[in-house]
Amino acid sequence: MKILVTGATGFIGSHLVKRLIYDEYDVIVLKRSTSDTWRIKDVLNKVKSYDLDKIDLKTVIEDEIVDLIIHVATNYGRKGESPEDIIKSNITFPSVLIDIALKNGLKGFINTDTSVIDTYSFYASTKKAFLHLLNYFHKERDLNVINLQLEYVYGPQDDGSKFIPYLIQGILDDGSVDASPGMQKRDFIFVDDVVDAYVKAIGLIEGMDKDFIAFGIGSGESISLRDFAEIVEELTLKEARINWGSLPYRKNEIFETKADIEKTKEALNWYPRHSIKEGLRKTIEWYMERKHNG
After folding, report:
1. Phi-psi label, residue 267: left if phi above 0, alpha if psi -120 to 50, beta otherwise
2. In this predicted structure, what is the pLDDT of residue 161?
């Protein structure tokens, strides 16, 4: 099976690409010439990589004849991107990609979705808007779709602007960490478990016949950010200097998210293998080694 992965240089995408290579899939990566490839630099020679700012998307798809697309790329809008840029990344790009690929033998599409509702942020709104278009491709053009609704994914090599890397690095550096009051509860899921879900989805989609299936991907449990921080303190053997309440809650803050994974367990034969402590231990070890190596 020839699999095209978007977002391969990002946090989740990089872990996924390495697993697909290990499982001996034929992997195609879409990126830009300006993309920071530090997460996958050791495996770039094992994939076919195309820079979309240097080659036309249609040319790539026609040359490769892709069987399956795993869409992981996303624009959160955390770096001041305009609404137009976010729409292009989260709606226009994957829609055009599907349209071209369907004309050239595409059999399935695995989408990376968010578990939060559309009113949470502009990012969430664009992700949910794309689902409507994805449903069109399924119904009108017979595309097999699996939609993975991810909870809060964490692990090594994450973006430092997110809460968990920010928290871990702040504690390891003996620094002060500003945070909201921290009473919101999240379903934290380790990145290796998420990658397992993608691999299971590949196996399922190969046997699907014009279907659209959504799965929740999380631990099935939720804990508060404060309780999560206490686990980090326990594992680092350091007391965090967290200024709880120094930052306000989001305007549309969601105070609890939790995946329903019963259907996921049954249909995908998947379940999270890492407890929060196990996943955090691996994550903290990576950050400690990175700090030690400079």
Report:
1. alpha
2. 82
